[in-house]
Structure to design on (247 residues):
């Protein structure tokens, strides 16, 4: 009986591992066992401080290194959690919080660097959507994965009424959706490119191949940022769709 239970548990852990996790398998194998995914998420949170400072000092290429490091750690901590079976309640909150804070730091830093009203009107909706995404995702996780497991003497019972919430609201599933993942990948690509190269300079294809269109990197980034807004809105709608009010 114990062997069957152990076999079932092993299968559950294996099925939770994604194909992309194997990209980080070498790092997961060499990192010490006492280093947890939550430690990596905390590192990402603290990376926002050098990012803000470096952007204020206009060291954009150095900022890009820290930003890309945060992006790598973002993929690594999730893969580590699944491959080592170290997923936790704290990690479910830390991971998206670190994503949003690091991206906010770069987006807001660009407001003082890129002289473009179009860019400003593009990043404000992204910041708003990201804030709403975090709030909705946190609420879903709280309702589905936290409130049902609260003990009777838990301090949260003094702030909210868990049983009343559970009786009136149902959440089908938690976690990121495909639209949200696409948005995050696009944001990393756009922000990395804007940090590594001068957004106002002519695009290198125009310079080197004498293409008549005088595009700048910012011109190319603008439709991608618009795509981030669209995918962010679709992701938000997807999160809302799995929340149901009970009659």
């Amino acid at each position: 009986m114990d062997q069957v239970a152990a076999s079932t548990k092993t299968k559950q852990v294996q099925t939770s591992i994604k194909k992309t996790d194997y990209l980080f398998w070498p790092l997961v194998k060499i990192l010490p066992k006492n280093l947890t995914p939550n430690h990596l998420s905390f590192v990402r949170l603290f990376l926002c401080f050098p990012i803000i400072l470096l952007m204020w000092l206009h060291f954009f290429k150095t900022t890009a290194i820290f930003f890309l490091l945060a992006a790598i750690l973002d993929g690594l901590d999730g893969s580590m959690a699944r491959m080592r079976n170290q997923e936790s309640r704290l990690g479910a909150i830390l991971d998206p919080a670190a994503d949003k804070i690091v991206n906010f730091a770069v987006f807001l830093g660009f407001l003082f660097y890129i002289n473009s009203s179009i860019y400003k009107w593009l990043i404000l909706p992204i910041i708003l959507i990201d804030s709403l995404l975090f709030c909705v995702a946190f609420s879903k996780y709280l309702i589905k994965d936290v409130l049902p497991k609260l003990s009777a003497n838990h301090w949260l019972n003094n702030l909210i009424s868990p049983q009343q919430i559970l009786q009136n609201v149902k959440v089908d599933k938690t976690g990121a959706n495909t639209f949200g993942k696409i948005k995050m990948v696009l944001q990393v690509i756009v922000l990395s490119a804007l940090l590594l190269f001068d957004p106002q300079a002519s695009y290198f294809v125009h310079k080197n191949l004498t293409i008549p269109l005088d595009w700048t990197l910012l011109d190319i980034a603008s439709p991608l940022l618009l795509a981030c807004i669209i995918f962010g809105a679709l992701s938000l709608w997807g999160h809302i769709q799995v929340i149901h009010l009970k009659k």
